[in-house]
Amino acid sequence: MTMHTYETDIVAWANEQARLVRTGQFELLDLEHIAEEIEDVGKSEQRELASRMAVLLCHLLKWQYQPARQGASRQATIKTQRDRIKRRLNRTPSLKNCLNDSDWWADAWDDARDATEKETGVSYEKFPGQCPWTAENILSDNWFPQLFDNH
Fold first, then answer.
1. Distance of alpha carbon 52 from the chain centroid
2. ∠ CA(131), CA(137), CA(139), 5° rounding?
3. Residue 146: its pLDDT value, please?
4. Which SS3 state, helix, strand or coil, does residue 45 take?
């Protein structure tokens, strides 16, 4: 039996660790790296949720800052993103903790501002420094942001 190391071939290592678990050879497991990988799964789920939220926030910003382009297509895109986020939150309820994490929101909002600037040409600085909407509004099927009053 060849022992693969975590550092040299993570895929072979993962397959070997799974085989060791299935065959009850627990004393041979690389527990420290297994623990790291399990933690990384959670972080990956959080990043995926943040990415989906940034896409939704970007579309909401475009809705707000490009009122002439508001229409059924953009509305459908927003609905799709909301549905995907809600499904992910239902499948992994502990991800709802992200919605209470100001750093998580800051990252998602910054990503949304970046993407919106690239896609619309509207300057990053025109958007609020932090998300002005509540999670409840953002995920609400019938809520859409209104134009900011520039006066």
1. 4
2. 100
3. 84
4. helix
Q: Which domain holds residue 82?
A: 44-139
Phi, psi of 134 (to 5 degrees): -85, 155
Q: How many whole angstroms separate alpha carbon 26 and alpha carbon 93? A: 30
The count of domains in the chain is 1
Does residue 124 lie within any of the structural domains?
yes
Residue 121 lies in a domain: yes
Within a domain: residue 5?
Answer: no
Each residue's pLDDT tens digit, 66-83: 999 999 999 999 999 999
Whether this prediction's pTM lies above 0.90 is answered by no
Query: Is there a contact between 135 and 96 (Cβ–Cβ < 8 Å)?
Result: no
Report yes or no on 21 lying in a domain.
Answer: no
Contact 55, 115 (CB under 8 A): yes
Three-state DSSP at 140 gives: coil
Residue among 72, 77, 69, 63 nearest 133 (CA): 63
With 0-12 / 13-18 / 19 or more C-beta atoms within 10 angstroms meaning exposed / middle / buried, residue 124 is exposed
